[in-house]
Specification:
The complex is a heterodimer. By secondary structure, chain A is α/β, with parallel strands linked by helices. Helix content of chain A is 35%, strand content 19%. The longest helix of chain A is centred in the middle third of the chain and has 16 residues. The longest helix of chain B is centred in the N-terminal third of the chain and has 26 residues. The radius of gyration of chain B is 25 Å and the shape is globular. Classes of the chains: A alpha/beta, B alpha/beta.
């Protein structure tokens, strides 16, 4: 799909040979070294350069090798990319910029190869933040991000690069940004997650049905910014119970935003407090990872708690 | 021996400056340094294990058995290119770009208009009419020299002290003062503080406050231009203080490795607010860093309009023809305070400021040059012009002052290309609030719905 617009370029560390996760494999041969290229090792440069490419009129796909390393680019993202259109009175914009980065737990990544940084960017008006749960979703959402006239950050749950296998349609298709998807309808509890966690919650829904005879409505949020508050609230109005789960640490994590908005909109519909099952407020550990992650047992226990409230 | 080797260093690193003009002392430099601009594997010396030379992928220079450091103190520093002296006298007629009376007088008028605009707008901040202002005193030569040398379609990324470039390109007095007031005619829609100008029509990217952030963006835009093969370059202005930021480093390294046609133009004016250059860097200024990145580099007298003009033209040609970044460091002096929030008398002497204002000022030097040419300029024309500039600026100020600010709803637009539902809801919330509490808000200063 990249070939459809001759002005697309993709760049970052090690992008030329195919990338450390093979995401750009064969692209340099197919589209040329001036369109698929390595940059020096500097995330603030990758994003600053990417903004400039977009301002200069080309579509820029900037790859950050690990989401854990996006922070040197934080100033360029927050103070520049996010504000480019607004501050110039719409004279300039960097809408043609898409930033991609692998995120999330992988089993052994520890502090610097496991982070989920979406909350930092949820707070940044002017960018969009999108997280796919699967290959089919990834293609549709990424194409939407690339074609969206706003700077978009596309976080790719790295554990899914290998473990998620699907028959992805070859044709061109897009999945809208800002719309959540209800994967499974239910009547008793609303489960909200994104990325890898959607699969954990799917198992939790099965466990809840089998062990507690509880019917869960499973929602993949898909977009962190803007997020689909209407779909979530409509579900909570129906079920009266909400559980939000993410790998990122609980304090200030995105579940907090969802919980605050939902209790404001659906207060009288709630049968129980909103549960958040998240990572702890520690750096992402190495050997203790199995205890850190918001696994299906912790989520199941939380479902029990709100059912019996 | 040492001197010859140093000349070799010099000749390999600086390709355009005649060796005889460089006052490099040999001192501890007997180390031969050869830096080639390696664009690809093919540019490296052949990998030949039979020859006793370094074969490392990172460097294939020469071996030495002498233990010694390259001592930066042993270099005099990159010389400052100039065309005219402080009295407006062209030193080498071959370097005079011979722009002619009409062009030079026009340049001079633009410099002085800028100067008048600065005086009156600065004063207007003191009077409480605008909230903030930054003057350009002493740097008018840089503004006009670069602007005149560029193509109107070359993209400009600037820092905040380059208003003359905008003026040259056609930004009107109304455009400047409307932005400072943030009124409804401000193309920036009143969103930013004064002097954060921008114009897509004039190819001048809107200013932002964080320093040096524009630099890697300039590299990226230049890369996009190169791919478009549009025959244009990008110019990126920044101060010697901003050059300390990490963004400056990455910008230069990216531009060099990715062969981007960008001119990095450093305005070294001696101060970053109160921080003098000897507290900003320890090496040979910003130009000294250029060769380290593999960039063609020149240092120029920023108060010499002709030097800036010639250097920028040459830089532009090289950047575009050879698809490579060029670093120009223009030495100048910030005659004014950093901004209306600064009083520089607390960190520098009046004598120092006075010297530059009276003895080495870009406007003064160009005037002296003009007065040396028969009939180009005289005191009568000077007075008439000064009167005209004051009148134009005052009238623009008075027009701008009366205009209302943009509609309150515009606070919520352009966050994204289209207004997102959650932002629309917030706009509705504010409007509901104003229906009840509107009397407590300065609504009369804003355009109605």
């Amino acid at each position: 799909m990249v070939h459809m617009r001759m002005v697309v370029v993709i760049f970052g560390e090690d992008v030329a040979f195919g990338g450390v996760f093979r995401c750009t494999i064969n692209l340099a041969d197919k589209y040329g070294k001036d369109r698929v290229f390595n940059t020096p090792l500097a995330e603030q440069g990758i994003i600053g350069f990417g903004i400039g490419v977009a301002v200069g009129g080309a579509t820029a796909i900037a790859e950050i090798q690990f989401g854990d390393y996006i922070f040197p680019a934080f100033d360029q993202i927050v103070n520049e990319a996010a504000k480019y259109r607004y501050r110039s009175g719409n004279l300039f914009n960097c809408g043609k910029l898409t930033i991609r980065a692998p995120v999330g737990a992988v089993g052994h990544g520890a502090h610097y190869h496991s982070q989920s940084p979406e909350a930092y960017f949820a707070h940044t008006a002017g960018v969009k933040v999108v997280i796919p749960r699967s290959p089919i979703q990834a293609k549709g959402l990424l194409l939407s991000c690339i074609r969206d006239d706003n700077p978009c950050i596309f976080f790719e749950p790295k554990v899914l690069y290998r473990s998620a296998v699907e028959q992805v349609p070859v044709k061109d298709y897009m999945i809208p940004i800002g719309k959540a998807e209800i994967l499974q309808e239910g009547s008793d509890v609303t489960l909200v997650g994104w990325g890898t966690q959607v699969h954990v919650l799917r198992e939790v829904a099965t466990m809840a049905q089998q062990k507690l005879n509880v019917s869960c409505e499973l929602i993949d949020l898909r977009s962190i910014l803007p997020w689909d508050v209407d779909t979530v609230c409509k579900s909570v109005v129906k079920t009266g119970r909400l559980l939000v789960s993410h790998e990122a640490p609980i304090t200030g994590g995105f579940a907090a935003e969802i919980a605050a908005a939902v209790q404001n909109e659906c207060f009288l519909n709630l049968e129980a407090p909103i549960e958040r099952v998240c990572g702890y407020d520690t750096p992402f550990p190495h050997v203790h990872e199995p205890f850190y992650i918001p696994d299906k047992w912790k989520c199941f226990e939380a479902v029990k708690k709100i059912i019996n409230y | 021996m040492a001197t010859a080797l140093c000349r070799q260093l010099v000749s390999s690193v600086f390709t355009r400056i005649p060796i005889k003009t460089l006052p490099f002392r040999s001192a501890t430099c007997s180390l031969q340094l050869i830096s080639r601009r390696l664009k690809s594997d093919k540019d490296r010396p052949k990998f030949d294990p039979d020859v006793d030379k370094p074969l490392f992928p990172g460097s294939r220079s020469e071996f030495t058995e002498k233990l010694q450091f390259i001592m930066p103190e042993s270099y005099d520093g990159i010389p400052v290119y100039r065309v005219m002296n402080k009295d407006g006298e062209i030193l080498n007629p071959e370097e005079d770009p011979k722009l002619g009376q009409e062009k030079i007088v026009d340049i001079y008028k633009k410099m002085t208009l800028l100067n008048t605009m600065d005086r009156i707008f600065y004063e207007s901040q003191r009077q409480g009419r605008i909230s903030f202002y930054m003057t350009n005193y002493g740097e008018e030569g840089i503004h006009m020299g670069t602007a005149a040398a560029l193509d109107a379609n070359d993209l400009v990324f600037a820092q905040y002290r380059e208003a003359g470039v905008l003026l040259y390109r056609g930004f009107t007095l109304d455009d400047f003062i409307n932005q400072c007031y943030g009124n409804h005619l401000d193309r920036g829609l009143g969103r930013q503080m004064p002097v954060h100008y921008g114009s897509e029509k004039l190819n001048f990217v809107t200013i932002s406050s964080p320093l040096a952030t524009q630099m890697p963006q300039a590299s990226g835009a230049a890369y996009a231009f190169k791919r478009k093969q549009n025959g244009l370059c990008v110019i990126c202005f920044f101060g010697e203080g901003a050059a300390s930021e990490g963004d400056a480093h990455v910008a230069m390294n990216f531009a060099a490795t990715l062969d981007a046609p960008v001119i990095f133009f450093c305005r070294n004016n001696g101060y970053a607010i109160s921080t003098p250059t000897h507290e900003q860097y320890r090496g040979d200024g910003i130009a000294g860093r250029g060769p380290g990145y593999g960039m063609a580099t020149m240092r120029v007298d920023g108060n010499d309009f002709f030097a800036v003009y010639n250097a920028t033209r040459a830089a532009r040609e090289m950047a575009i023809k050879e698809s490579r970044p060029v670093l120009l460091e223009a030495m100048t002096y910030r005659i004014g305070h950093h901004s209306t929030s600064d009083d520089s008398s607390v960190y520098r002497s009046a004598d120092e400021v006075n010297y530059w204002d009276k003895k080495d000022h870009p406007i003064g030097r160009l005037r002296k040059y003009m007065l040396r040419q028969e009939g180009w300029w005289d005191q009568t024309r000077e007075e008439a012009w000064m009167k005209e500039t004051r009148k134009s600026v005052m009238q623009a100020l008075e027009r701008a002052e009366k205009r209302k600010k943009p509609k309150v709803d515009t606070m919520f637009t352009d966050v994204y290309k289209d207004i997102e539902p959650h932002i629309q809801r917030q706009m509705n919330q504010l409007n509901e609030h104003l229906k009840k509490y509107g009397e407590h808000y300065p609504l009369k200063n804003f355009v109605d719905k």
